[in-house]
Design a protein that fits this description.
heterotrimer, A alpha/beta (about 375), B alpha+beta (about 450), C alpha/beta (about 325), A: about 375 residues, Rossmann fold, 13 helices, B: about 450 residues, Dihydrolipoamide Transferase, 19 strands, about 25% helix
Chain lengths: ~375, ~450, ~325
């Protein structure tokens, strides 16, 4: 049925960890970092499992999408970002990125359930949201529109001399559209400080990659003057490292990087899709490489009680669902409000940056004019490690 | 909207057919995993459903006892329909959606807004009751919305007003004129010197000044002693002639008694007129009228009036245009100084006079002083007629229908062939007291030459 | 106060605002060294540098999409579509990303898309369009369309300062034909309609290049028919100045709406609908519309003239309306 080669082979032109000497396989990660990574992986999965149930119970209207199997990519990539970096945008498999940036669980479930909430005020649903206060621009359904917007954000940072980057998530399916080309071309042309994270999850809805393109995305990057790296998208530490390197390159004026994270969408496109078109053998093979299981081994090795962590996460999710369900639906009279901005525009805020390397600046203050252009702690730390 | 579960009577929670995909409108119940009376915990799978997109297990929305099963396996129901009820014991606080109030759409006043005495369109509500027996729709057919509103505000019945708009529609100007005018005792706002009354100033030979109004109608008189019921038995109904019909009748009889009527007819190829009128977006009439005006200046004895053995020739052309008012009759408003107007300008004037004629808004000046008249029954398909001269004028031209006919044409080599051409008859009645047949024929031939462009 | 062309007034407004606010940047095809296809941005790169006046690849989605990003990063981008026709290539970024952003996420997108519009110069089907109705139908985008040099400068400055995405329709026919006094310095023209001429018999509602056509027609109707026609210049299509439209209906009771754009669902259709909805009781005659028929704008001058509304046609329809 499916002819996908799931072995993460290195193709011509795509580089795999080109400067592996820069880090030592997550050596910069502390035990607390591993605990945080695992907590966010678990949180992503528990929230989505709960979401699917709520959807089937009719408590979440519309549709529901999850990213089972891809948690490591979104969590690992977001974990490498500093507080002033901007994600434009997480896509439908990237709940983990929202959670790493600090998205509030109760607001999240209110949003899913169409209740009054601070994220979308009911104007959006499912995974279509982004907490601007945390430096996240919400996605649109047209792919990969937000990749172009990320390039514009990066351009703004560069022009204003701000030491921050923009990161954009998208999938293999997105690389077929013209906006992908325009974003890659302009980013490469201007060497904008932007990181593109391509989640190659083998499927664009039901269409496998061999029916989408002849040349894989990472191999196409060279044609745009964009650095590229293929990484195991189910390995949270590998993704963290790769994005960290790409971020460093961008901050140093080295321009954009395309990271092609190889992974597998383990559920249907949405809760309404049982993905019967996927080869069961392929699915089984990827199931054996579950990103949570893989990182649980590392976490346990660091002495982290994974089961206790899971129980804690489940409790927090249950409390959030309870609170969300008790929240009223938005006032119908508000449906026509907010189409236009009136008065001073509200901007993007700072996100949580739980990686221990950012602890210094995360405590710091920021002026209204924008982030201070001080030396970046991740850069400092990784240089030290080198 | 959403298929959020609704809490029904105290403690009963509906299990709804879930919406599995935005386009999915129904689902089929495949199997129940629980029975009435079973205890279920929230999130326990209680049934299996199938849609055209997906097969899925359904978790219980609440903890409790299955109170009712409403849909049997194999049954297909719409999304959002309750399929079971659970007697709950502490659910996750399902909130009933607010009463469905439509979102307020900007700019549309909601029905329950405090009334200011007007409809949403600003029309006073009392308009609805202003004119007994006539629907608002009917009123709006006969007057413009603003005319109706202003009239009602001033207590005026729009239907009593003469409308100056298209098809006699009452416009704001008409209402404002009625408001400012001193209300005449007679009421209806037809001018006292209206040309639609017998007007002694209009020189109509043989016209008598007595009014026929109130007198026994000629029909009844000529019918002798036939009693009304006998007439009715034969399907007849007697009614006196209108004032206008009476006046027209006397004028026509007088003209025939006075002028020495002769009629001359020429046939004219209207190809060029047809082409020009399409270019200019006009009817044929203004183009013919322009040609008539120009030709009359070469034949001044036809642009004339004859009274008491005195022939008055005019060097300016004041062109009468006969306008049919349907059954009411006919009126001939005059375009003064037609020689100064282009075909387009003449067309506009004719249109304006015709409109005002039909709206009964002509003033006496509009119908006085004509020197030549054109009538155009051809528009209704007639081919030949012998019109009655509008005395004291000495001629009247009748433009008949333009119809395609086979005609013999001769090319520059003298070769004859048959062609299809739009042809029309120009029929002119003229007063033999003023001119002779040769003059009439010469005039018509010259006119034809002008129209054919030779 | 200087006498400027419409085009010079736009350049002047851009330069003023770039001097006053270092967040303002210009990007588009050939806008830098070359100064733009119509020379609106001539000299700006020399004054403000390559970061603030950027030549872009031929990539409308990238121009609009990166402008959205730059706006989110705190800048005030003014991007140029070389011809408004080409905005179709960036439609998705404008309609789905920029237009819906604030409603969905609370993030404002302060940016301007300059759209050289309109026909009348044998530009043919891809260089003559008036695409405003596409965007009127898309919530979250403001749309302005100046008809004079003074308004061109004031509306552009107001658009740059507005915290929302604004489509700025600049009519190519007016670029070098419209001249007028333009105040010095930075000033904002409000997004409201303007009564260009007062009258009592009929109102002509128009915007952009059709305002001058309406004024020509109004002159003729006075000279030939002694009829006083009111002319209302909408200036802004979103927001639409409903009060001004309803007020002119109240004054004259007869309305002719002129669009240069294709007739179906054009801006004028919205004006007509508004009047039908809210001013029915003020009408003395049906609301009439004059617009281009629903055809691509043809190339040959005779065909183009047959399609675009002109003063003759306005006079003709106005007379029909006056006689109603």
């Amino acid at each position: 049925m499916s002819t996908i080669d799931m072995k993460p082979t290195l193709r011509v032109g795509a580089r795999r960890r080109p400067d592996a000497a820069a880090t030592d396989d997550g050596a910069s990660l502390t035990v607390a970092d591993h605990r945080s990574l695992h907590e966010h992986l678990l949180m992503t999965r528990v929230v989505e499992e709960r979401g699917v149930r709520l959807y089937k119970q009719g408590k979440i209207p519309g549709s529901f999408y999850d990213g089972r199997g891809q948690e490591a990519t979104s969590v690992g990539a977001a974990f490498a970002l500093g507080p002033d970096d901007v994600i434009s945008s997480p896509l439908i498999r990237d709940l983990g990125a929202h959670l790493v940036r600090g998205t509030d669980l109760t607001e999240l479930f209110r949003h899913y359930m169409g209740r009054e909430n601070a994220l979308s005020h009911g104007r959006e649903g499912n995974i279509h949201f982004g907490d601007r206060r945390l430096g996240i621009v919400g996605p649109v359904s047209m792919l990969p529109d937000m990749m172009v917007v990320a390039v514009g954000l990066a351009m703004g940072f560069r022009i204003r001399g701000e030491r921050r980057i923009a990161l954009s998530f998208f999938g293999d399916g997105s690389t077929s559209r013209g906006d992908w080309h325009e974003a890659m071309n302009v980013a490469g042309l201007r060497r904008e400080p932007v990181v593109f994270v391509c989640e190659n999850n083998q499927l664009a809805y039901s269409t496998p990659t061999d029916r989408q393109f002849r040349v894989r995305p990472a191999d196409r990057a060279a044609g745009y003057g964009v650095a590229a790296e293929v990484v195991d998208g189910n390995d949270v530490v590998a993704v963290f490292d790769a994005v960290g390197r790409a971020r460093e390159r961008a901050l140093d004026g080295g321009g954009p990087t395309l990271i092609e994270a190889e992974t597998m969408r383990m559920h249907g496109h949405g809760a309404h899709d049982d993905a019967r078109y996927v080869d069961p053998e392929l699915r089984a093979a990827w199931a054996a490489r579950d990103p949570l299981d893989a990182h649980a081994t590392i976490a346990r090795a660091h002495g982290i009680d994974v089961e206790a962590l899971r129980a804690e996460v489940e409790e927090r999710v249950a409390v959030a669902v309870q609170a969300a369900a008790a929240t009223p639906l938005p006032d119908p009279a508000s449906a026509t409000e907010g189409v236009f901005c009136v008065g001073e525009p509200a901007g993007l805020g700072r996100g949580a940056a739980p990686f221990s390397g950012f602890a210094a600046t995360a405590q710091g203050t920021r002026t209204a004019a924008g982030p201070t252009a001080t030396a970046d702690p991740l850069t400092a730390q990784t240089r030290q490690a080198a | 909207m959403s298929s959020s579960p609704t809490e029904t009577v105290a403690g009963l929670v509906d299990v709804l057919m879930p919406q599995m995909g935005s386009s999915v409108s129904e689902g089929t119940l495949v199997e129940w995993r629980v029975a009435v009376g079973d205890r279920v915990a929230e999130d326990d799978v209680i049934c299996e459903i199938s849609t055209d997109k997906v097969d899925s297990e359904c978790p219980a929305p609440a903890t409790g006892v299955v109170a009712e099963i409403l849909v049997e396996p194999g049954e297909t129901v719409d999304v959002g329909v309750p399929i079971a009820r659970i007697a709950g014991e502490g659910t996750t606080g399902v909130v009933r959606p607010p009463t469905p109030a439509a979102p307020t759409v900007t700019g549309t006043p909601s029905a329950d807004e405090p009334g200011d005495g007007t409809d949403p369109d600003g029309t006073p509500q009392e308009l609805r009751h202003a004119t007994a027996g006539l629907s608002r729709r009917e009123l709006l057919r006969r007057s413009s919305p603003v005319a109706l509103r202003v009239a009602t505000e001033h207590g005026i019945d729009v239907l009593t007003l003469a409308g100056s708009g298209r098809n006699g529609r009452v416009t704001r100007r008409d209402v404002e004129a009625a408001i400012t005018a001193t209300v005449a005792a007679e009421g209806p706002a037809i001018h006292s010197d209206s040309p639609y009354r017998a007007d002694p100033d209009v020189p109509v030979a043989g016209a008598e000044s007595r009014s026929s109004r109130g007198a026994a109608s000629p029909a009844v008189e000529s019918g002798g002693a036939t009693p009304a019921d006998a007439l009715a038995a034969r399907g007849g109904a007697a009614e006196p002639l209108s004032r206008m019909r009476g006046a027209i009748g006397r004028a026509m009889r007088g003209a025939l008694d006075t002028a020495a009527h002769c009629t001359t007819i020429v046939e004219c190829d209207m190809s060029r007129v047809e082409r020009r009128r399409r270019e200019l977006g006009l009817t044929a009439l203004p183009l013919v009228a322009t040609a008539v005006t120009a030709t009359l200046r070469e034949f001044p004895a036809l642009n004339a009036t004859l009274q008491d053995d005195t022939l008055v020739r005019y060097d300016r052309v004041h062109l009468g245009i006969a306008v049919s008012l349907g059954e009411d009759g006919l009126i001939v408003p005059v375009v003064d100084d037609a020689q100064d107007l282009s075909a387009k300008g003449l067309g506009r004037r004719i249109k304006d006079l015709a409109r005002r004629a039909r709206a009964k808004q002509l003033s006496p000046d509009d119908v006085r002083g004509g020197t030549f008249t054109i009538t155009n029954p051809g528009a209704y398909g007639a081919l030949i007629a012998t019109p009655v001269i509008n005395v004291p004028q000495v001629a009247i031209l009748d433009l008949e229908a333009i119809v395609k006919r086979p005609v013999v044409i001769t090319d520059e080599h003298g070769q004859d062939s048959i062609a299809i051409r739009p042809m029309a008859n120009l029929c002119m009645s003229w007063d033999h007291r003023a001119i002779d047949g040769v003059y009439a024929a010469q005039f018509l031939t010259a006119l034809r030459g002008r129209l054919e462009g030779v | 106060m200087a006498t400027l062309t419409y085009l010079q007034a736009i350049s002047d407004g851009l330069r003023e605002e770039m001097r006053a606010d270092d967040r303002v940047l210009v990007l588009g095809e050939d806008v830098g060294a070359f100064g733009g296809a119509f020379k609106v941005t001539d000299g700006l790169q020399a004054e403000f540098g390559e970061d603030r006046v950027q030549d872009t690849p031929i990539a409308e989605a990238a121009i609009i999409g990166t402008s959205v990003g730059a706006a989110l990063a705190g800048l005030r981008p003014v991007c140029e579509m070389q011809f408004s026709d080409f905005v179709a290539c960036g439609f998705d970024q404008l309609v789905n990303v920029a237009g819906k952003m604030h409603y969905r996420t609370g993030l404002a997108v302060p940016m301007v898309v300059r759209l050289p519009t309109g026909g009348g110069f044998a530009g043919g089907p891809f260089h003559s369009q008036n695409p405003e109705a596409w965007f009127m139908h898309a919530p979250g985008l403001k749309i302005v369309a100046p008809s004079t040099p003074e308004d061109a400068k004031g509306l552009l400055i107001a658009a740059i300062r507005d915290p929302n995405p604004v489509c700025f329709l600049e009519h190519k026919h007016l670029y070098r034909r419209a001249k007028g006094e333009v105040p010095d310095g930075g000033y904002e023209t409000p997004f409201t309609a303007r009564t260009v001429r007062e009258g009592d018999a009929l109102s002509i509602v128009a915007y952009g290049a059709m305002v001058s056509a309406a004024l020509d027609a109004a002159d003729r109707l006075w000279d030939e028919d002694r009829v006083l026609v009111e002319v209302l210049d909408l200036r802004s299509l979103v927001p639409l100045d409903e009060d001004a439209i309803l007020a002119t209906v109240t004054r004259t009771n007869r309305v002719l709406i002129v669009d240069e754009a294709n007739a179906t669902c054009a801006a004028g259709a919205q004006v007509a609908a508004l009047i039908a909805d809210r001013a029915f009781g003020d009408l003395d005659a049906p609301v009439r519309r004059l617009a281009a028929p629903d055809v691509p704008i043809p190339f040959s001058p005779s065909l183009e003239a047959a399609v675009l509304p002109d003063p003759d046609r306005i006079v003709e329809v106005a007379r029909e309306l006056l006689a109603y």
